[in-house]
Amino acid sequence: MNTELIPIKLDKIAQTRSYSMLVLKAKNASRFAIYIDPQVGRIIQMYLTGSLKERPLTHDLISNIFKGLNIKYKQVVINDMRDTIYFAKLFIEQQIGKITTIIEIDARPSDCLAFALLNNVPLYCTSLLLSKTIPIAED
Questions:
Q1: Residue 25: which residues within 8 A CB-CB, separation 6 or more?
Q2: Model-level pTM?
Q3: What is the domain-level CATH number for residue 108?
Q4: Residue 91: which domain range?
């Protein structure tokens, strides 16, 4: 099974009242879409535009907790799709004394993307996942 990691980036985001569409672009120029809850889409849009928030949002809170515990984001990997539902892993690192631990957390791709954008974390997908997606043509 080929699980090569392919760098991806957020190409664009489109908003409607009932969903948000994230278009992701792989290093090899393949593009695919993930449809997410419109509220998370608005949060991602806020991070992209640098909009001011009156209070910290959930992603901000978790990021602040991780920083306080000396936990670093390593990478986000979108690793699977089943019945049009995408799956992702957030990889974090914590060092306590001389011991470094890498932790793999199952999470929604939309939350992982929000954390990645907020904290400048590298985004990847697996080559197997990319082979399952429906490609989107350039605009």
A1: 8, 9, 10, 11, 31
A2: 0.88
A3: 3.10.690.10
A4: 5-132
